[in-house]
Amino acid sequence: MTPEITPDRSALRSWLPGFLALAAIWGSSFLFIKIGIRELHPLHLTLYRVAAGALTLLVLLPLLRDRLPREPRVWAHLFVAAALGVALPFTLFGYGEQRVESMLAGIWNATTPLVVLPLAVLVFRTERLTPRSAVGLGLGFVGVLVVLGVWEGVGGAHFTGQLMCLGAAACYGVAIPYQKRFIAGSSHSGVSLSAAQLLLATAQLAAVGPLVAGAPPVPTGLSAEVLASVLALGALGTGLAFVINLRNIRVAGASTASTVTYLIPIFAVLIGALALGERLNWHQPVGALIVLAGVAVTQGLLGRRRRPAGAPGPTGAPPGPAAVGKTAAPAVDGRATPAADGGGRGAPATGPAVG
Fold it and tell me: What is the reported pLDDT for 320?
């Protein structure tokens, strides 16, 4: 008879507070985007938040006795990752939230793994498609249709906003396997790669922003509420969240730390309802649950056999726009939160991407 194994409560207490704090930080990113676009063009909001995130990580580098990468090849791949995993998705979420509720944007962010898997299998060839994964993808696709409410017809600003948020999640879906294929083998730390990625994204936005949206407003001319939201998105959502995520990976393991993805939409919905008085149609949270179930199936968290104690868990990780090295960190919205170790944020190039 096999003795029953009791969970180590002291170990749980060591990582659970940070785990919940991370979900709350990334889940609140969609609220801060909603507030920021009241006075800022989505491109300008993304520029300021990414610049704040880059500055935060640049301050961390010397404290950690680390430095930026020096190899041109690494910078070239980071340039692509910066565009696909930071500049473009962050901006799309801003455009999307001009048309939809912040909580709905948080729900769409959870679809990222459904885009990651087929691209990782068919394009980058970093994963294999199993029957379980195929079932999870099909289930997730059904969830997407339910969230969209396709039976009500398509069209209108709200539908367009949802497609923009889905497009942002799709950008993460391309960036994550790209990073795993071309960047994850780097010897640089996650802080180093993420700082470089955010610097490049800042330069990209500084070049494109004025051409599309005009010169960005002077930060001192923004209201205190909007300015605080920008700083929270950059310094808190990237800097502090990055450190917390790396600690969670070290204490709880990459597989456990990566499951924060499942809590992000819950926090996004709760915060949107409490802070902004937002409401969802019945089919949107139902579709979100179906999407999360599909993601859980593809990552082996549902319908798998019990593993012996000490056996490695699933390697799938949540979405995350961040550079990934041997200790990568998340880039989220929710959401710059570079990728996780085994999942933003190192070894693997996937982690919870946020807003």
Answer: 37
- Highest mean pLDDT among 48-57, 135-144, 278-287 belongs to 48-57
How many degrees, rounded to 5, is the angle at CA 108 between CA 31 and CA 262? 85
- What is the spatial distance between Cα 226 and Cα 234, in angstroms, rounded to a whole number? 13
The two three-digit tokens of residue 63, written as one number = 């404290």
DSSP state for residue 38 in the 8-state scheme: T
The C-alpha atoms of residue 300 and residue 303 are separated, in whole angstroms, by: 7
Tokens of 116: 């990651």
Distance CA 209, CA 42 (A): 9
pTM: predicted TM-score of the whole model, two decimal places: 0.81
CA-CA distance, 94 to 40, in Å (whole number)?
Answer: 10
State how far the Cα of 194 lies from the Cα of 60, in Å rounded to an integer.
11
Residues 316-333 pLDDT 10s: 333 333 433 333 333 334
Write down the number of H helices and E strands in the chain.
Answer: 15, 0
C-alpha span between 323 and 183 (Å, rounded): 7
Q: Distance (Å, rounded) from C-alpha 40 to C-alpha 181?
A: 35
Cα–Cα distance, 175 to 170 (Å, whole number): 9
Residues 45/119/106/192 CA torsion (nearest 10 deg): -50
Q: Are 82 and 200 in contact (CB under 8 A)?
A: yes
**pLDDT number for residue 334:** 36
Question: Which residues are within 8 A (CB) of 243 and not within 5 positions of it... i.e. 6 or more apart?
Answer: 60
The angle at the Cα of 19, spanning 31 to 17, to the nearest 5 degrees, equals 105
